[in-house]
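User: Sequence in, structure out. Go.
Assistant: Echoing your sequence, followed by the structure tokens.
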Amino acid sequence: MSTFLCVTECAIKHEDRFLMITRPEGTHAGGILSFPGGKVDYSDGENAADILVNAVKREVFEELGLQLIDPLRYVTSSFFVDTVTERKVLDTIFLCDIKKTKLTIIPSKREVAAFHWLTFEEINRHANCPPWLGKYLEKCL
């Protein structure tokens, strides 16, 4: 039987810009633009909670120090095969349109090499934008 590793990502939008991260070289997706996010943990589902929403909020906090209080909206899901580990990964994308969340960002040095506030056009023109990112962003507009 084949199973998936579950991950969540969050497109964080404020006005006309998206909060993007660059992961450190030598890590999964190192050097490319991406949304903050990561693996779903067993603890994310404690107390019959919404496991995917809890996972993406936890990951955003761990990576950027942001405590998201604005609502999250499901955008899409897809799967890919990790080229390093050959694991099948189920990736769920959420959107958080910032209205109330305090935008003080404290990036994790271990997980975030840099963060950027970029427009849709700037992301798509960026040298380190992977092809799937533009497709996800189109669904967030």
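User: And one key feature?
Assistant: The longest strand covers residues 5-14.
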